[in-house]
Each structure stands twice: as C-alpha cells, then as structure tokens.
Amino acid sequence: MVQDPWGDEELHEECGVIGVYNEPGINAAESIYYGLYALQHRGQESAGIAVIENKKIQAHKGMGLVSEVFRDPNMEIFKGNIGIGHVRYSTSGESEIENAQPLVANYRDSQIALAHNGNLVNAKALRNMLQDAGVVFQTTIDTEVILNLIARNYKADLLEAIKRVGEIIKGAYALVLTIDDHLIGLRDPHGMRPMCLGKTKDGYVLASESCALDAVGATLVRDIEPGEIISIGPEGIRSDRLNQWTKKRLCIFELIYFARPDSIMDGIGIYDSRHRAGQILAEEFPVDADIVVGVPDSGIPAAIGYAERSGIPYGIGLIKNKYIGRTFIQPNQEQREKGVRIKLNPLKGIINGKRVILVDDSIVRGTTSRRLVELLKEAGAKEVHFRVSSPPVAHSCHFGIDTPYRKQLIASKMSVEEIKEMIGADSLGYISVEGLEKACGEGHGYCRACFDGDYPMEVPFDVE
After folding, report:
1. Which letter does DSSP use for residue 117 in this model?
2. Is 211 one of the annotated active-site residues of the chain?
3. For the domain that residue 315 is a member of, what is the CATH number?
4. Are residues 205 and 328 in the same domain?
5. Which residue of the set 15, 251, 447, 450 is catalytic?
6. What is the pLDDT of residues 126-146, one digit of tens each?
C-alpha cells in the first residue's frame, strides 16, 4: 500500500478510465484529454492516452497530473478515431512509470490497449498461474494479468474471450479496451466500480463518471449494468453480459467521498446524496452550536445539509490551499504536522468564540481529525463537535480503495467515545448505516464492507 504523504485519514480512489469512439476521420484524443482532466480527482500519480488507427496503437503516458504528462494540449499528434485514457492512484503495484496505463500489447496482426479501474482479489494467484505457463510480466499491476488472460483466450471472438476472462477474474473492475475498430467496456458483476455511457454528435464515450461526459460535451445515455459488456464498432453498439449473476453492490464510498459532486452514478446524484446525509446526520446527532463548518471539499455538501436541517448557520471556517501538489511529501511526522496547516487554514474571524460543528466525510486513522480539532480550538473555537457523514470505517477494502491494514483503522480498535477523546472533540457522532443508505437511496444495493465486514466475495486475509 502506498503511504499517504500527510499521514492522515484521507482515502484514495485507484483510477479513472475513459474510452472514446468517434466516426472515422474524427480524432478521439482531444475528448480523452479533456475527459481525463474531469477524472483527475480519481488519480494523480500517472496519466496516459492510447489511440488506435489501422490496427496500430499510438500511446503516451507518464508520471504526474494530466497537465504534467501532456504539456502540449495539441492532440493532433494522436491519429485515430478510437482511444482510451487513464488516470491512476496506485493500490496494486508501485507508483512507477512501468505501471502507468493504458497498457498496450501486440497480438497477432493487431494491438490491444487496456485501462483498468479497480482491484482483483485473485490477481496474485492468476499471476502465478500465468508465470508457471511461461508468461513474462513487465509490470506489477493486475491490469497486466487481465491483458494476458484476454490474449490467451482470444481465438476468434473477442467478446467470448472477455466473457471467459470475466469468469476467471474476481474483484471490482471497470475496463475499457480497444482493438482493431472497436471500443469495449466491461463492468464487474457486482457493479462495484462505476462506468457510464454517453453520446456525442461524433460518437460515444465510456467513462468512470458522468462528469467526464459533461467535459467532452456528451449526453449521459445510461450507466453500464453490472456484468455488462458494451462493444462499440462500425456496426453500432452491442450489449452482452458475463455468464454469471450476482447481486449489485455499488461501492458506497463512491457516493460518500470519491465521485465528483456533479456526477450522477447509477441514477444517484452525488451532491444530493451527500446533502441528504448531512440532513440525516443532523437528525441523528443534534447539538446546540453556533456554526456548522465543512471540511473541504467532500465534507461541504453534508455540512450544508446539516445546517439546513438543524437551523444552525453554515459558515466557511476552513480554507483549503488548492495549490499543494501531490509531491508535497514530508519525511517525518513533525513536518507532516506542519504540512496540514498549509493544506487547511481556519478563518479565525468566523471561528473565534463559536461553538463549532465540524462535518467531515470519514475518519480513518484519526490523525487529521485530531489536528483539525486542534486548529479550530487554536483559532478560538469554544467547542468543536465532530460529525461524520459515514459510519465508522472498521474494515479494510480489498476492491481498489486505498485503506490501511485493519490495525491502522481507528474504529477497529476504539469505541466512538474513545475516538472522541483521541481527536479532542467535545462530542462525536457518525451517521448510522441505515441513515447513510437512506441518503444514498435504498434498494440500490451497496458494498459497505468497510463498515460491517460483509464482503460480497471471499477476500484475502486481512492483516491485523
């Protein structure tokens, strides 16, 4: 697991993917480029684009943000009407250029490019099996395992090969790949990782979130169904399914934290769900206070909802420095403590002398929560009442969310009262699981294993 440079409880999503199919003669790279900008929140370690023309793939990828990898916004260097793109935060494999995506492989007289969002729970076993059969790996990521499996099963029909691979791999994934004159998308049978389909005047777009469709001028058509294979080619769109049926289990943290608030995911408005969570949190854990403050950025919609339902005014009490890059890494705890003060700064004129309700989306390790309470009290807050728009995170995620080992999760070893004392808050309240599901929309089916340990499939042993 990549250690969080801040030493805090921020969770990190693993990747964002996009695929574009345009009419012949219309370059796909520009749309991919702008779509990746819209998905930058899902991964900041590397970015890449692969475009296919006449069965040959031209790819460029590198470490850093989209703006760092593609310094020249002129996408004319890419030729081809079909392509895919990827932004990455590593949860499987180290943060190195070799692990940047899309991955490209030669196969017979064609080339395949693949980008993957998610995590396979049986990747290690599959890798060992392939290595025993003589396969040589160039990366340490499970995406290469998937690419090899597709190639080994691809005899005459690519969709049949993908179906076969879908029966073999286990975990959470959303894949986009291109070969010859087709763009193909695949969502895992549980629907844990998101993917949607959009329509432009020139063709179609597949993306992790609908905000990427907005960025390229595409209209949201629908979400890709769990276990659905979507193939887009000269003959149009074809929908197929993996040969298995399971219950839908969308990752609930997509709604709580990861997705951009302007996205719509499986028919659920992300901002609306977070806003409702804040309202329900106010009902479940009211407190007498003077002001409600949200932790930027994902805690703000819930804070606004809390303020509206409680009748306590909402105020901007913390300012986030948006210019701290991903490379702002400090080598020791003392410097990390200073770093959080650069990242977030309280507005003393708003906070001083007030009883503050501080709303955040989650508490994982608890270290940043403690420092935030300290910052507010140093700014003159009389009281700090911490409210969390997710239940306690007590179990590790094995499906692509970068959570620590369970022993590092504060809720796995402390009660709510003990956590309150540890972070120095005057009171602490977490939304209930039932309240969160109500906020997100009951009846959709969610993976909430990070709260209750009820994993939708067998997972590796969780190191204590």
Report:
1. E
2. no
3. 3.40.50.2020
4. no
5. 15
6. 999 999 999 999 998 999 999
